[in-house]
Amino acid sequence: MRYLEEFRDPGLARRLLDEIHATVTRPWALMEVCGGQTHSIIRHGIDQLLPEQVELIHGPGCPVCVTPLEMIDKALAIAARPEVTFCSFGDMLRVPGTEGDLFRVKGAGGDVRVVYSPLDALEIARRSPDRQVVFFGIGFETTAPANAMTVHQARRLGIGNFSLLVSHVRVPPAIEAIMRSPRCRVQAFLAAGHVCSVMGVEEYPELAGRFGVPIVVTGFEPLDILEGVRRAVRQLERGEHRVENAYPRAVRAEGNPAALRMLAEVFEVTDRAWRGIGTIPGSGWRLADAYREYDAEHRFAVTGLRTLEPAACRSGEVLQGLLKPHECAAFGTVCTPRTPLGATMVSSEGACAAYYLYRRLGPGAAAATDKEATSVG
Amino acid sequence: MADFPAPLLPDPAEWSCPAPVRDRSVVLLGHGGGGALSAELMADIFAPAYGNEILDRLTDSATVDLGGARLAFSTDSHVVRPLFFPGGCIGDLAVNGTVNDLAMSGAQPAFLSCAFILEEGTELAVVERIAGAVGAAARAAGVSVVTGDTKVVDAGHGDGVFITSSGIGLVPRGVDIRPQRARPGDVVIVSGPVGLHGVAVLSVREGLEFGVEIASDTAPLGGLVAAMLAVTPELHVLRDPTRGGVATALHEIATASGTGVVIREDAVPVPEPVANACGFLGLDPLYVANEGRLLAFAPPEHTDALLDAMRAHPQGTGAVVIGECVAEHPGMVVARTGLGGTRVVDPPVGEQLPRIC
Amino acid sequence: MCLAVPGRVVDVEERDGTPMAKVDFGGVVKDVCLAYLPDLQVGDYTIVHVGFALQRLDEEAALATLELFRSIGALEEEFGDAWSRAAEEAR
To answer: For chain C, which has fewer Cβ within 10 Å, the N-terminal or C-terminal residue?
Structure first.
């Protein structure tokens, strides 16, 4: 068992697809919350293989996409300071702020570095005591424990020149916000498997019950996603709304208790603005008072920011599933992956970028591709 | 606000909304990444400044007629960190990169130049090792380095060693290989496993260890091309998928020729450690650099003979068909996924970055 | 949202008072922090995200999931084609 190729088997995928085709009798709108799932769906062409009645709405689960503009602008301002070495996950470097992105700060002489793990940033801080090393702590519940532990370690090891610019977000309040929207079309959720690896599933039954939506904890390999869809559709067809765990190999009901304890120690729940959506109560984490000295916002008082979201960008509606990317007037004209207005066009997981890559292939061309591809080699 | 979509203005420069990525007052790393930003630099600055009929073809090497001979002429600058990586160093790249650019027009590479830009303070032993690698790589490729230059920049103004190499070679009669010649029906062949160079370099940068040896594939391809031309001079396109990888090279060919390209994703040979390293860093192996591979577009009737000839050559033992050229979706590259879906393979905007999501 | 990949623990050690492991991702080995899964043993598989092991992978559960997928096809063989079965279920 390698936990990888076993879950990409085309034969088993066919069986799951047949089963979904056989189960569905009417149109359903499912939202995959997680951008990793969106990526997998596009990467493997899964949405093309599903029955027409099953619509996948790409949810606000790309941390890069939902990080608020104000926070990006703060990152740009801090990264531009001469004493700062600014470390970030690679995905954040191209996300547009009000004026430029982190690449541009780097181009203008800023010390901006891509790291794989927040621990790498801490190591940079340890090796360069004369630099102020700031890590851009974005992400959902999956990433938050890593950043929490890094701050905890910084304090334990006495690495005072490290700080965290925190913009963490939490899934359940976002699900609630989406369901409360009067125009909500979502009928079932594929919950993010790796978020639940950390958090467990205990936050979800109440949501499923209150809003009458099936919530299926779903993994990321093609078979996992098909299984998530299969279970969600089965519940919908039967009129059920339960929480199911379709990713039991990596998700236990109780989550990861050690990670939960660290999150509770280092962070506290706060209201958080989601880019394009607005402020969702209780939807984020910030550093708790005991760790305030490691908060980059606190350490580098950034003032005088004038944040301005492009008016033409309707990514908020896209993220809520209210608007298909190609229905936006800017889509594919002024807004493309090379000239993105909003983050959903930047990230490889962003719904707009995914659509852009993909919708340019008309139905006729797709059919031709099928024909041609089968005759290849 | 959201309910009133802004009217589309004809000139994005006049647009009142901030469109930050369009703000290109400075050079970004992505301008050298071989993707869309590089193409933009070429189209917006270099071509208007000194474009001509030959440059505008945008081939890896220019083909020029001079005194009755058909010459391929190419130049390439090399900046790589680290200077030494598993399987080679910047010296190997300087020779093989230029040799391969020449070979991609069907030429037999003959003479190279090699210009060094050294950073003050760089250890001479490092320069000596790199020079040794240049010599060995030139001998292996059957070319002579016949001219060169050295400049030194102040400490802190360079990355140790930069090398610019140029080269010329003779294009055999009857050979006309360029991206514009791809046409529907052509088979697309790759000469071996992809992604090794990029992952070997990345492994040093990202602190990855490999259970098995992952070495750069850097190698000269002149001999392999000669073996292929011996099968048929009717090769349409050759391309070495360096920066930007197979995806970018295929995209350039599709664009230049106005044809569509379809590849079968599970036919593309990706070594397991490369696939796993990419999975781990969130990269797509199709976009990872190679330094000793070529893509060939050829009429289908020659497929078997070409594959046989390639596989008999040390640089082509892993040659396989990965797709074909189609009349549909001109200018686009489409991958058929293992599950039977399709996806569009677009050129990357800039450099691929490790992602968390 | 979260690129997390499965890997096998090949070595465990303590560094600066923190449990660390070398984890093999199909031929690629990387240092991983075990602070959240200190009980992981050599040979265990774990999900890793940005350098942290988040959850041990449960082989029994994985096998059961795959068995379920296979049984979906088997059911089909047993009960005839999927469409009639769907009709059956819809009744």
So the answer is: C
Contacts of B308 (CB under 8 A, 6+ apart): none
Order of strands across the sheet that contains A278-287? A111-114, A84-88, A132-139, A162-169, A278-287, A267-274
* Residue A132 within a domain: yes
| A273, part of any domain | no
Rounded to a whole number of angstroms, the distance between the first and last alpha carbons of chain A is: 31
Are A277 and A319 a contacting pair, CB within 8 Å? Answer: yes
The answer, for A125 touching chain B at a CB cutoff of 8 Å, is no
Looking at the DSSP bridge assignments, the partners of residue B111 are B144, B168
- Contact at 8 Å (CB) between B319 and B311? yes
Q: Residue A188 in contact with residue A215, Cβ under 8 Å?
A: yes
Number of residues in chain B: 357
Domain coordinates of chain B in residue numbers? 61-170, 179-345
Structure tokens at B32: 């050298």
What's the mean pLDDT in B86-105? 96
**Full strand arrangement of the beta sheet holding A215-218:** A54-58, A28-32, A188-192, A215-218, A243-245
Whether B46 has its CB under 8 Å from any CB of chain A: the answer is no
Write out chain A residues lying below 8 Å of C58, CB-based: 248-250, 252
Distance in angstroms (rounded) separating the CA atoms of residues A100 and A94: 9
Based on the domain organization, do C38 and C78 belong to the same domain? no
In A, residues 22-61, which contact B (CB 8 Å cutoff)? 35-36, 39, 42-49
Pairing relation of β-strands C4-15 and A278-287? unpaired
Nearest CA in chain C to B355: C3
Token pair belonging to A147: 């950043």
- C8 close to B (CB below 8 A): no
Q: Measure in Å the smallest separation between the Cα of C37 and chain A Cα atoms.
A: 8
Specify the pTM: 0.85
CATH architecture label of B179-345? Alpha-Beta Complex (3.90)
Q: How confident is the model at residue B7 (pLDDT cuts 50, 70, 90)?
A: very low
Give residue-wise pLDDT tens across range B227-260. 999 999 999 999 999 988 999 999 999 999 999 9
The verdict on a CB contact (< 8 Å) between A1 and C36 is no
pLDDT at C87: 47
The Cα A6–Cα A249 span in angstroms is 13
- Using alpha carbons only, how large is chain C's radius of gyration in Å? 20
B332: phi then psi, degrees, rounded to nearest 5? -120, 150
Q: Which residue range is the domain that position C64 belongs to?
A: 58-91
**DSSP state, residue A134:** E
B204 CB within 8 Å of a chain A CB = no
- Determine whether the interchain pair A249/C52 forms a contact, defined as Cβ–Cβ distance below 8 Å: no
Tens of pLDDT along B332-342? 999 999 898 88
Q: Token pair of B47, please? A: 């071509």
Q: Specify the residue for token string 């034969």.
A: A11
Q: B304 CB contacts (<8 Å, ≥6 apart)?
A: none
Do B207 and B280 contact (CB within 8 A), yes or no?
no
In a domain? residue A354: yes
* Nearest alpha carbon to residue A275 among A198, A174, A143, A134: A174
State the Cα torsion B163-B168-B171-B172 to the nearest 10°: -110
Please tell me the total count of domains within chain C.
2
Place of tokens 């109560």: A281
Cβ neighbours of residue A90 closer than 8 Å, sequence gap 6 or more: A114, B282, B353, B354, B355, B356
Of the two residues B121 and B207, the one the predictor is more confident about is B121
Residue C54 and residue A145 in contact, taking contact as beta carbons nearer than 8 Å: yes
DSSP 8-class letter at A188: E
Task: Choose from B26, B206, B326, B339 for mutation: most chain A CBs within 10 A.
Answer: B339
**Is residue A338 over pLDDT 90?**
no
Residue B1's closest CA among A313, A165, C48, A154? A313
